[in-house]
Amino acid sequence: YENSENNSAFGYGEGSGFNFGWTFTNTVAWKETFGKHAFDVIIGQEALNTGSGRFMNANGQNPFSTDIDFINISNLPVSTRQVNSGLYRGVNFSSYFGRVNYTYNDKYLFSGVVRRDGSSRFGSNNRYGVFPAFSAAWRLSSEGFLSGATWVDDLKIRGGWGQMGNSNNVDPNNQFSLFGGNIGASSYDITGSNSSALIGFRRTRIGNPNAQWETAETTNIGFDGTFFNGRLDVIFDWWKKDTKDLLFTVPIPLTAGSNAAPPSVNIGQMLNRGLDLLVSTRGNLSSDFTYELTATGSVLKNEIVSLAPGLNIITSVNPAYRGIRPIRNSVGQPLSTFFGYNTLGLFRNAEDVSSHATQDGAAPGRFKFEDVNGDGVITPDDRINLGNPIPDFTGGVNFTVGYKGFDLSAYLYTSIGNEVWNQSKWFTDFFQTFEGAAISERLKGAWTPENLDATIPVVEKTSNFSTSNVANSFYVEDGSYLRLQNVTLGYTLPATLLERWRLERLRVFASANNLFTLTGYEGLDPAVGGDADTAFGVDVGNYPVTRGYTFGLNLSF
User: Fold this and answer.
1) Which H or E element spans position 426?
2) Residues 187, 194: contact at Cβ < 8 Å?
3) pLDDT tens, position by position, 211-268
4) Which of 475, 326, 482 is CA-nearest to residue 393?
5) Helix or strand or coil: residue 208?
6) Residue 4: pLDDT above 60?
C-alpha cells in the first residue's frame, strides 16, 4: 500500500442505521373549452420530508483474528473500542401552487403560475416565499396578414417572466445558535489534574433566524417557427436570469469563536444573460435518401453584480490546491475567475533579472512576473484576473442520414472561450515541489543555459515565490475544444422479410462515443467540472472521458 507505514494495526467496525422520507401530493385539474376560449387549470399541494433517521457505529483495532466469522465489537480490546451514534430529522417542505392556461382561438396564449413554498431550513420569520410566473405567446401564422405566406407553417412569438426560490445551499441548522463540546476543543481541568479534565461546551454554530429564500428572476423573449412544409424549424431565445438574495456564508470575527460555523445570510446578486438558437432541417434527397440536420448554439455572460456592503470578494469560497489559491470570486467578474500573477515567461539570464522589477526569489530559469502597477516591486497588488472557465460559446451539430434500411448519425459538440486551470502541471513541471516529476517527459524541455526560450522552469530543489508557490498564468490554458460525441450506424430489416419470422421490427446497430477531441489544452480532458458553482474549472488530474463502443439489437414482436 502507498501508506503502509500507517497501517500497523488492523481495524474492525460495524454500523447500522435507518432512513425514512415521505412525499404527500394532491392535485385537482379542470379543463374546458367555450367556443374560441380554452381553459386548463390545476391547483395542488405538496409536502415532503427529505429523510429522517438515526445511526450507530462502533470500531476498534487489533482484533484477535481477521476472520469476520469470529470477530465482533465485544471482543475488541477495550482500549481501542469507540462507539458513535447520531440522529437527523431531515428537511421538511410544504408547497401550494396553482396554474392557469388560457388560449383564445388557438392564436393568443397565456399562462400564469403562482407557488407558495415553505422550508424548515428557514426560521419562522421567513419560512415561506411566494413565487409567481407569467408567460404569453402570439401565433402570427394564424393571422390574416400571413395567410398568403404558404412557406410559413407555424410562427409564434413568446415571452415570459417568473421567479423561483432556492433553499438547497442552506444548512438545516442555519437558523439555530448551537453549542457542543469535546475533550480536545473545550475541556476544563476542574480538579487541577489533567487526567480528570471534563468536557465543557463551546459555540459550534452562529444562527441566523432571518435568512430567507434565494430568488431567481428569469425573463425570456423568443420565437418558434416551422417553415416549408415542416422542412425547417427555428427556435430563438434571449433570456436573463437575475438571482437576488444570494445565500452565502460571510466571514465572522474571531471573537465569535474560531470553531463556530458562520451562518448563511442573504447577500449579493448574480446575473446571467444569454442567447440560444436552434435550427433544424430535414427532407428527402430521393425516395430512398433522407437527411436531418440540427444545429444549436448558445452564448452566456455571467457576472457577480454585488455582495454585502463593504464586501467585494467571496472569501468563504477560496479553495487551495497544494497551497495555491487560484480562484477569486469578486464583484464585476464571472464566477470562479482565476486570479494571480501574470507570467512574462522565464528569466533568461542574470542581466534579465537585474533589469526587471524587484521580485522575491528571482533567478535565471524562474518565473518573471509582470509589474502591473509599475512601482518597481512585485507585490500582491500586481495580481490580476487571468480568465474564467465559463465558455463564450457552446454549440453542437447533430446529423442523421438514411438510405433504405441504413441510418447513420453523428453528434459534434464544441465549447469556445473557456479557460482551464491546469493544476496537474504542479506534478509534472516542478521537480522542487514534487520529485515524482523526475519521470515527466515535460521536464526534458525545462530551462537550461542552452535552452533560454523554454516555457518550463529550471529543474532545481528550491521552491519559492518565483517558482511554484503562488498562483500565476502559467497554469491557465485555453480550454476550447471540439468533440465528436457519438457516431451510430444501424440497419433495419425490411418489413416483408420480418413477416416471415413474425417480427414487427428488427434493427442492429453499432455506436461509438467520444471518438476524438480537437483541442490545444495540454491536460487530459478540457471538459473540466468542479466541486461547486464558485470553484470549478480547476483540473486536478480529472479522469479523462473514455471512448466507448456499443453493439446492439432491437426486436419488436
Assistant:
1) helix 425-428
2) no
3) 999 999 999 999 999 999 999 999 999 999 999 999 888 777 777 766 788 899 998 8
4) 482
5) coil
6) no
Per-residue b or e along 272-301, where b marks 16 or more CB atoms closer than 10 Å to that residue's CB = bebebbbebbeeeeeeeebeeebebebbbe
CA-based nearest residue to 441, from 423, 456, 452? 456
The letter for the amino acid at 394 is T
CA angle 436, 438, 444 (to 5 degrees): 145
Q: Which three cell numbers stand for residue 149?
A: 405566406
Residue 365 bridge partners (DSSP): none
Distance in angstroms (rounded) separating the CA atoms of residues 122 and 262: 15
Tens digit of pLDDT for each residue in 138-155?
A: 999 988 888 888 899 999
**CA dist list (Å): 491 to 134, 404, 512, 554, 556:** 46, 9, 16, 10, 14
Report the alpha-carbon distance of residue 372 to residue 369 in Å, rounded.
Answer: 9
163 contacts 113 by C-beta, under 8 angstroms: no
DSSP letter for 342, please.
Answer: P
pLDDT at 2 over 90: no
pLDDT confidence of residue 159: 97
Could you give phi then psi for residue 312, rounded to 5 degrees?
-115, -5
Strand boundaries in 307-365, DSSP class E: 338-340, 343-346
Q: Of the candidates 161, 61, 172, 192, which has an alpha carbon nearest to the alpha carbon of residue 127?
A: 172
Residue 234, beta-bridge partner list: 225, 279
**Closest CA relative to residue 50, chosen from 78, 92, 95:** 92
Question: What's the one-letter identity of residue 528?
Answer: V
Torsion of CA 333, 334, 339, 344, to 10 degrees: -90
What's the angle, vertex CA 266, arms to CA 264 and CA 270, rounded to 5? 115
Strand partners for 114? 98, 132
